[in-house]
Amino acid sequence: MDVRRLRMLLELSRLGSMHEVADALTTTTSSVSQGIAALAREVGAPLVEPDGRRVRLTPAGRRLAEHAVTILAAVDSARLDLDPGAEPAGVLRVAGFASAIRASLLPVVDDLRATHPGIDVRILEYEPLEAFDLLARDEVDLALVYDYDLAPAEWRDDHDVRPLWSREWGVGVPTRDRGLAMADLADRDWIVNSRHTADERALRALAARAGFAPRVVHRIDSLELLDDLIHAGRGVGLLPRGRTSRRGVSVLRLGDGAVQLRAYAVIRRGRDSWPPLRAVVERLVA
């Protein structure tokens, strides 16, 4: 249904004269008449009837004019929402891993409250593979994901990838073992991420450098639970350096064999012209 014709019908309901509608919309009376006739053919019902020298809407015309108010308001709102020069406003859905949400997204959300209060950021905590799936289905607008330098992500052709930051990781061990090297852990049970494969891929690359294949026994998503298992002597696993682990757990620095976790903001290619998304991404990468 042509929104220009709906606008003609709505103006006709207000003004009652095709000549006045033509003046209001800067067109000709003939164009208005043809537009209303075409709209009537589209809906399969007469929309106007003579009323002396003027016309009036039929019951079907009045009903369609009522719908036109809502439809045209929605179209105007959509145009404003998508205007690159407009004040950013709308719901922005972000899927990301916990560390990036804490370190990068929450400070941006706080800033937006003051600078662009019309942006409503909805946060969903997901690991990268899950976030990629949501982004592909257009169920989120932005994904905060990570990989490791030893286990790089495989980007899709439609991914627009913006690097955010990197962080060194080491091996979490009971504090009594903090003097050990990677090769000394060959006979230990290992703990990897249950929701993302990059952790295990990076571990296997590290272990291969040290001359062994790790025996993966546990798969855990929570770093806090990983701490608990390490403290209980149930295994060892990769942990970020600089994070405060529970008492009794230390993170070995791997020196030249260190592994870097790398965080990224990922959107669908060509989507960054939408003002709310552009405002958030610009702040994330600043």
TrEMBL record:
Keywords: DNA-binding, Transcription, Transcription regulation
GO CC term, one of those recorded: protein-DNA complex
Organism from which the protein derives: Nocardioides zhouii
Protein name, UniProt field: LysR family transcriptional regulator
InterPro entries assigned to the protein according to its UniProt record, in alphabetical order: LysR_HTH_N (IPR000847), LysR_subst-bd (IPR005119), WH-like_DNA-bd_sf (IPR036388), WH_DNA-bd_sf (IPR036390)
Family statement drawn from the similarity comment of this UniProt entry: Belongs to the LysR transcriptional regulatory family.
Superkingdom of the organism of origin: Bacteria
Gene3D superfamilies the UniProt entry points to: 3.40.190.290, Winged helix-like DNA-binding domain superfamily/Winged helix DNA-binding domain
GO MF annotation terms: DNA binding; DNA-binding transcription factor activity
Keyword Secreted: no
